[in-house]
């Protein structure tokens, strides 16, 4: 056991720290009414912050064991039994524990924030497990969590900081996440039966405060938080607190052995309800003709009746032996249309996972095109091209078949991330997803979606791993004139699902692939050009309206009664060569020129002279011209 000369770990009890969480987990798992006088053994007790609570709330006799004299003295002064011991070996520890307990009944054991200090932690745990098994006692363990995001975020960006205490205490000799803790306990002969972890938003590793990855408003922190929170729920756990019971120990190393797993290149997940057996037969016929056979098939039957299940099993039974051996039927009897995808992806062993529905057609080079694309783009979302073909079911001599309607139209040859923000241009049979996003990043299909679940998943995956595209047409996406997914769901349902997907994309930072900025700028420039043209059209339209209104006003003036009656006043100018005013003289003039013409006419001597005439006309409501 390693001691720390820089820190005595003299921490106070609190309901929301490791001590309070330990008491809570003991209280909810122990029947305190049946074991009065039983001992609670606190190994690595320190200053015994839980001692009073063990006796007062759990009803146990508290006994503390530690190598720290200061902590033991504090416990003795408070009236508790203590024993000094340095944990060195399994045999020595077990012998010492048994001497301490003697003929008393052991009710429970705790070891808080001690295991990580032990170079021989597994041996000490085996001693504890043996003791617990003999007395049928529960064991409570706590260790700090190496997976807290404060550590991970800084480590990802090149920073690690050991401290005098805390998550990266410089005396720790072993680091634990939940899986490693569970594995070590199972090897020791202890099985976790309950947990009550301590969660904190900001741990003692939340420094330096000016590090961008620790500042809440930064984009990089928001992105990492989103990705990390999706992997598991350990990102904010500061200390694991678990209760365990004795069990049969497992064998083998507690550490993970690194070795290459022999995986097929592609796992194909095929959803089916067994309604179109004739298309399922055609689909498997195409799979049997694949150039590359490095794949496996999971047929996920959703809510199958017995009749349909038997029909699907017969199709699989009739396959060539090599393909039959690669094919497995999985029955799923609950969930919406999205749930079978999560079930199929969870079963997949391939490096890549593809979705191929039972009514679409893969060409012979479908698998091979993905394989070739992956050679230089391993880990990216792979995309080829599919053609859209409208089809219908026809009956020929009593047997169902498929008839195409019109020409096939290929989808876009490249994946455009910006284009896909508005809708899905990549049907399922054009894509192969890297296995890691599902099995390591825990990116699942959103089962709250009843439609467009594939588009949602495509965008989330593409924003993390990017997309590698091939222009090769590798399959046919068949669109049924009757019974298609569009007809099975209301327009409102489609609209709501699409809005929810776009809201999710807009609510978090996303990575965009290289070259997207140029596309955005091009779209912006195009939009700016369109806006300029629109403004010019609007300006010209408004100017034309103004011209029409001014010409109408000028026409009203020169054809008015008062203007005609005042014509003699304009004869002198006419004798000097001036022409009488005609509307055609003003056609083609600009708005400014027409405004000047109107002003000149209204301020002329002849128009002013006839003002009384227009006033009388207005008085008797005679038209004022």
From TrEMBL:
CDD domains the UniProt entry points to: Glyco_tranf_GTA_type (cd00761)
Gene3D superfamilies noted in UniProt: Spore Coat Polysaccharide Biosynthesis Protein SpsA, Chain A, Vaccinia Virus protein VP39
MF terms (GO), sorted A to Z: methyltransferase activity
Domain of life: Bacteria
Record keywords: Methyltransferase, Transferase
SUPFAM superfamilies: Nucleotide-diphospho-sugar transferases, S-adenosyl-L-methionine-dependent methyltransferases
Any one of the GO BP annotations: methylation
Name listed for the protein in its UniProt record: Methyltransferase domain-containing protein
Species the sequence originates in: Mesorhizobium huakuii
Lineage: Bacteria, Pseudomonadati, Pseudomonadota, Alphaproteobacteria, Hyphomicrobiales
